[in-house]
Structure formats: structure tokens, C-alpha cells
TrEMBL record:
Name under which the protein is recorded: Vancomycin resistance protein
Pfam families attached to this UniProt entry: VanW
InterPro entries: Glycopeptide_resist_protein (IPR052913), Vancomycin_resist_VanW (IPR007391)
Organism: Pedobacter petrophilus
Source organism superkingdom: Bacteria
Length: 272
């Protein structure tokens, strides 16, 4: 039996009003919450790299979505221009939605794939979560503090060359589902993003070298079948490692536990 639709799903005008009520609330918060938001960008890279990662631009995600994938690349290139080179100084907060703004046709955004209400569908600006996913992976390899993060409540596609643990990303939807992190250190950080022929690439830099590094791992990954429905679970852990003293682990931290509905049948699963 299909999940019962929300009232806002059955009446588009109610959905529109609900979304903009939340958006206006967030805009008000940007001016009243007392946070100092990062806004300075620099073409000059900071001296030390903390972490680098790349994400494939075109992936096989279900059927009949080739054009949405191509459109996504256009969306990514527009959004990246608002983030590349951003400096996060001591006491500042990075806000993805505040920097990127509302994706609209007038800005050149195209219909791309987005996940909403338990299904994959086309939406203006769809696909830019690939940027927030990449940035989050960089950030959790640093002493920066993630203060707002959301992830999808379901997994719509089988893994296709996945290199990062399931549930290690960060989804955004302008502007009330934001991705934010705060710099509580005395150092300045910088996010740099660029494109190669096949990938979106990014790095996190800092103005002075740290004495430690981070290692992020996945534990207890399983597919489950419960009452004829498939689910996926895992845990994301982080180790803080001294660069000296033989790479000694000085701290182990559970970052998140994931449990999400799966909309496909996995090859291997456990009956729950």
C-alpha cells in the first residue's frame, strides 16, 4: 500500500504556501540569529590542504534520466561560482543556501533530478546537492563544527560506483533545509571547487598546518527486509589521529547512525 499523501501534496497551492512560509522564516533568521555568515571569497588559496575529494558528474541513476543528468552539470557550474574560494574565518558560519541563493530559471538553472516526497523527480536546480555532499565529506575531515545537516529519508537507487559511505552526504532545499558549519577554531579555512572533464572536485584548506588528521569509516552496514519493505542502515565513525607519534588515534567519535527506506530490491539482505 502506498503511503498516504500529505494535504500539501494533494493541493499544490498549500504546498507553495508552506514552502514560502518556511523560506521567509529562514530569511528572517539570517538577519536576527546573531551568526556571522561567511561571505568573503578569495582567488588565492590558503597554504595547507586538509582534504581533497572528487565526485563523478554523470552517473547512472535509474532509467530515462540522461537529460536531467546533463542539466545537473549546468546547475552545478552555476552554484559553484557562488562558493568557490569562500573563506570561513574564526567565528564565522558557512551557509550553503545563503551563498548559493534560490535556484531559478532566470539565473540559468535547468530541471535536474531531486528527491522529494519519497520519489525522484525533476526540479529547477535539481542536483546541486552533489556540492553539499562533497563539502560535507571535506568538513568532517576537519575540526569545523557541523551545525545543520539533513539527509534523505530514503535510498532510491542501487549503488553505482559509490566510493563514500551511505548516508555521509548533506541534502539541501532552499532555504529551510540548509547545510551549515561553524568555525570555532582560531584558524581560517577555505573551500575550493572546480571541474574536470568527468568530475566535480573540491578541497578544504587552512592557513596553518594542524598536528592531527581525521579518518572517517563506515560500520555495521546492512540491508534489511521488514514487513515486505527494504531498509538500509549503517554508522559513520571518525577517528582523530596525531600526525606524529606513529599516527596514534587520540579520539573516536560516532558522527551519525543512518536508517532509511530503500525503494529497490538489494541483492543481499537480512530478514528482519
Amino acid at each position: 500500500m502506498k503511503p498516504r499523501k500529505l494535504l500539501s501534496q494533494r493541493h499544490p497551492i498549500l504546498y507553495f504556501l508552506a514552502v514560502w512560509t518556511r523560506r521567509l522564516k529562514r530569511i528572517t533568521e539570517w538577519y536576527t540569529d546573531g551568526k556571522k555568515y561567511a561571505k568573503t571569497r578569495s582567488i588565492n588559496k590558503l597554504s595547507n590542504r586538509i582534504k581533497k575529494h572528487q565526485s563523478v558528474l554523470l552517473k547512472k541513476l535509474g532509467d530515462n534520466n540522461a537529460q536531467l543528468q546533463i542539466n545537473k552539470v549546468t546547475n552545478l557550474k552555476i552554484a559553484v561560482k557562488n562558493i568557490d574560494g569562500i573563506l570561513i574565518k574564526p567565528g564565522e558560519t558557512f551557509s550553503f543556501c545563503k551563498l548559493v541563493g534560490l535556484p531559478t530559471k532566470n539565473k540559468g538553472y535547468l530541471p535536474g533530478m531531486e528527491l522529494s516526497f519519497g520519489e525522484a523527480r525533476a526540479g529547477i536546480g535539481g542536483g546541486i546537492c552533489q556540492i553539499s555532499n562533497l563539502i560535507h565529506w571535506l568538513v568532517i575531515h576537519s575540526p569545523l563544527t557541523v551545525t545543520e545537516r539533513y539527509h534523505h529519508s530514503f535510498d532510491p537507487f542501487p549503488d553505482d560506483g559509490r566510493v563514500l559511505p551511505f548516508g555521509s552526504g548533506a541534502t539541501v532545499f532552499y532555504n529551510y533545509r540548509d547545510y551549515q558549519f561553524t568555525n570555532h577554531t582560531e584558524q581560517t579555512f577555505q573551500v575550493n571547487l572546480w571541474f574536470t572533464e568527468k568530475c566535480l572536485e573540491g578541497e578544504l584548506r587552512i592557513n596553518e598546518e594542524l598536528d592531527y588528521t581525521y579518518h572517517v569509516i563506515e560500520k555495521d552496514h546492512q540491508f534489511l527486509k521488514i514487513d515486505h519493505q527494504f531498509y538500509r542502515k549503517n554508522e559513520i565513525w571518525r577517528e582523530k589521529i596525531l600526525k606524529f607519534e606513529g599516527g596514534r588515534v587520540i579520539e573516536t567519535e560516532l558522527l551519525t547512525r543512518n536508517f532509511a527506506r530503500v525503494t529497490y530490491e538489494p541483492e543481499n539482505y537480512i530478514e528482519g
